[in-house]
Each structure stands twice: as structure tokens, then as C-alpha cells.
Amino acid sequence: MLTDAALKALKPQEKIYKVTDRDGMYVRVAPSGSLSFRLDYRLNGRRETVYLGKYGSGPSSDGLGSLPHGCQR
């Protein structure tokens, strides 16, 4: 589960990498250290990706708390 503590523990690497959660949700970790929430889904057999926002840009201390209402679990 992508908790606040788990997100803070992620370290940047030389290349972009993903840390998956569930149901297509993941965090993309950039070499700069920025974390962005993304969601992969399938529509008509094609994989699509939705950018949900950056970690730390919202008022909530829980990374998922600042997501749009329909995206929260």
C-alpha cells in the first residue's frame, strides 16, 4: 500500500521507475526525486494512463488524500 511513510522512503534512481499499488494505480519516481500518481486502465483493448497529480502538492499528509474524489478508495 502506498502510505505516506512508504512514499517518503522512495529514493530516486538513475532511471524512472514505478511502484505499483493496486487496480492499476502506481507512483512514478523520477531521477529528480519527484513522485507522481498515475493510473493505468484498458479501454477498447488499449492501455491508457491518467496522470493524477504529484505527491506533496496537496494539503493532506496522506498522498492519496489529495486525489480527486472519484479516484479515492
Automatic annotation (TrEMBL):
Q: Which family does it belong to?
A: Belongs to the 'phage' integrase family.
* Positions of the Integrase DNA-binding domain: 2-56
Q: Which domain of life is it from?
A: Bacteria
Name one process (GO BP) from the record. DNA integration
Map out region (Disordered) in residue numbers.
Answer: 54-73
Which keywords does this chain's UniProt record carry? Answer: DNA integration
Q: Where is the composition biased (Low complexity)?
A: 57-73
Protein name, per record: Uncharacterized protein DUF4102
Q: Which residues form a coiled coil?
A: none
In terms of InterPro entries, this protein maps to: Integrase_DNA-bd_sf (IPR038488), Integrase_DNA_bind_dom (IPR025166), Phage_Integrase (IPR050808)
